[in-house]
Specification:
Layout (H helix, E strand, L loop, with lengths): L4 H22 L3 H13 L1 E6 L2 E6 L9 E3 L5 H20 L3 H6 L1 H25 L5 H10 L5 H11 L5 H24 L5 H29 L6 H19 L5 H10 L1 H6 L1 H25 L3 H5 L2 H25 L4 H11 L4 H12 L5 H26 L3 H15 L4 H9 L1
Antiparallel strand pairs: 1-2, 1-3
C-alpha cells in the first residue's frame, strides 16, 4: 500500500483534509496546521517484530526490524510542493494594496527594511561565530529568521477588522518590504553569476514591465465570459516560465513569483474574482503539499538534542525584531501600545521562513538537524508573538484610525482610508 501511487495520494490529501478541519475548529492558520500534521505523520513509521506490526513515532520505535515511514515523499509530490511554494509566494505579493504602499511608504519602508536587516545580520553573525555554523548555514539561518509572515498578519488584520485602517495597511505593507528583502537575499546570495543569470534578469524585467497590461487585457477580452479561465492559466504560464529561468540561473523561483505578484496587485484589487480563483486553486491543490512536506522533513530526534539552540534562535529573532521595529514605530508617532503591537506582528514568521529553510535543505546548504531547528523556530514565531500581541497589546479600532489621521497630518498627505473613516463619523 505504501508504494501504490493512489494510496500515497490518498494519504497526502487525507492529511490536508484533517489539517483543514483542525484549522476551522481551532482558528489556527491552515498553513501552520499542515506543517504540524506533516511533522507528526513524517515521524510515524511501521515496523515488524516477531510477526507483529508496530506503529509509532520514529523516535520511540524499539522494533529491531526495518522501519517504513507512513508518509512518503515522491517525485510528483515534490513537484506539487514546488508549485505550491511558487504560487503561494505570488499570492503574498498580490495581496499588497498598491495605494496603501504609496500612501504609507515612509513608515512601511523604514520599518520593513530594519525588520529584515537587523535580524538577518545578527542571526547570521551569531549562527556563524557563536554557534559554530558554516558560512552558508549561517546565511540560511539569517534569512529564515528575518522574515515576517504576511499570511499570519493578514489573518489577524482581517479577524480584527483592522485591514481597512491606515495603520493596518501600513503594517501589511511593511511585511511586504521585509519579505522582499528575504526573497532578494535568498535569490542573490546563492545565485551563480553567469550568462544565464543575466538572461533571467533581463527577461524578468521585461515581464514585470508588461505584466499588468497583459493580465488586464486578457481579463477584459476573455476572463468574464470563459469557463476555461485563460487569465489564471496565463499567470501560471508566466510564473512557471520565469521559475524555470530562475532555477536555470541557480537562483530561486520565489523571487520572480513575488515580484510578479506585486506588479499585478493593482489588477487583483480591481478584480476580486481572479483573487478568489487563484487562491482556491492554490490552497486546494498546491500549498497543502508544500506545507505538509515542510513538516515532513522535521526530525523529532534532532529536536530533542537542539532545544537550547531553538530557544536561543527564538529569543534572537524576537529581540532583534524589537530592536529594529519598536524605535521606528515610536518615531512614526505610535503610542507604546500600538508600537508594541506592530513590533510583535512584525516578529511573526511562517511562509518565507519555511521556504528559505527548505531551500537550504534541498540544496544541501544545511543538514536535516539544522533544518528541523530552523523550522521549529519559525513555527514558534508564528504562535508566540501573535498570542502576546493579541492578548496584551491589541489596540482599539479608534486608536488605529487615530494613528492614521495623525500620520496624515504630520506627513501632510491625504489618506483615503482615514478620509472615509471621518466621513462615516
Amino acid at each position: 500500500m505504501l508504494n501504490n501511487v493512489w494510496f500515497i495520494a490518498c494519504i497526502w490529501m487525507g492529511l490536508a483534509l484533517v489539517a483543514s478541519l483542525i484549522s476551522i475548529r481551532t482558528g489556527i492558520s491552515v498553513a501552520l496546521v499542515e506543517i504540524l500534521v506533516g511533522l507528526v505523520a513524517g515521524n510515524l513509521a511501521v515496523g515488524f517484530e516477531g510477526g507483529t506490526m508496530h506503529v509509532g513515532l520514529v523516535a520511540v520505535q524499539s522494533t529491531g526490524g526495518q522501519l517504513h515511514h507512513i508518509l512518503q515523499s515522491t517525485e510528483w509530490t515534490n513537484f506539487l510542493a514546488l508549485l505550491g511554494s511558487g504560487v503561494l509566494t505570488f499570492l503574498a505579493g498580490a495581496e499588497i494594496d498598491p495605494q496603501s504602499l504609496k500612501t504609507n511608504w515612509r513608515a512601511s519602508l523604514f520599518i520593513g527594511v530594519l525588520s529584515f536587516a537587523v535580524p538577518f545580520g545578527v542571526v547570521w553573525f551569531c549562527a556563524q561565530y557563536v554557534f559554530g555554523w558554516g558560512l552558508h548555514e549561517a546565511q540560511i539561518a539569517g534569512i529564515a529568521l528575518s522574515t515576517t509572515s504576511v499570511a499570519v498578519v493578514y489573518a489577524v488584520m482581517i479577524e480584527g477588522g483592522f485591514s481597512d485602517t491606515a495603520m493596518g495597511k501600513m503594517i501589511l505593507a511593511a511585511c511586504f518590504i521585509t519579505d522582499l528583502g528575504t526573497v532578494l537575499a535568498l535569490g542573490t546570495l546563492f545565485a551563480t553569476y553567469n550568462l544565464s543569470l543575466l538572461v533571467f534578469v533581463i527577461v524578468m524585467l521585461i515581464a514585470l514591465w508588461f505584466m499588468p497590461k497583459w493580465t488586464q487585457s486578457i481579463i477584459t477580452r476573455f476572463g468574464a465570459t470563459r469557463v476555461s479561465e485563460p487569465e489564471v492559466k496565463f499567470i501560471f504560464f508566466i510564473l512557471f516560465f520565469l521559475g524555470g529561468l530562475a532555477t536555470a540561473a541557480k537562483s530561486e523561483a520565489v523571487l520572480p513569483a513575488y515580484l510578479i505578484g506585486l506588479v499585478v496587485a493593482g489588477v487583483f484589487v480591481r478584480d476580486k474574482t481572479l483573487v478568489h480563483r487563484m487562491r482556491s486553486v492554490a490552497f486546494a491543490v498546491f500549498t497543502p503539499f508544500y506545507f505538509i512536506k515542510a513538516g515532513l522533513y522535521v526530525s523529532l530526534p534532532a529536536l530533542w538534542t537542539g532545544l537550547l539552540l531553538i530557544a536561543a534562535f527564538l529569543i534572537l529573532k524576537m529581540a532583534t525584531k524589537i530592536v529594529g521595529v519598536l524605535p521606528l514605530a515610536r518615531m512614526h508617532w505610535m503610542n507604546k501600545r500600538e508600537a508594541s503591537y506592530t513590533t510583535l506582528l512584525m516578529a511573526t514568521g511562517l511562509t518565507f521562513g519555511t521556504i528559505s529553510a527548505l531551500f537550504g535543505l534541498q540544496n544541501h546548504l544545511i543538514d536535516q538537524r539544522q533544518y528541523s531547528i530552523l523550522v521549529t523556530v519559525v513555527i514558534l514565531s508564528a504562535f508566540v508573538p501573535t498570542l502576546i500581541a493579541q492578548k496584551f497589546f491589541q489596540p482599539s479600532m479608534d486608536a488605529m484610525h487615530a494613528w492614521g489621521r495623525l500620520y496624515r497630518k504630520r506627513m501632510r498627505i491625504l489618506s483615503v482610508e482615514d478620509v472615509n473613516s471621518e466621513d462615516r463619523k
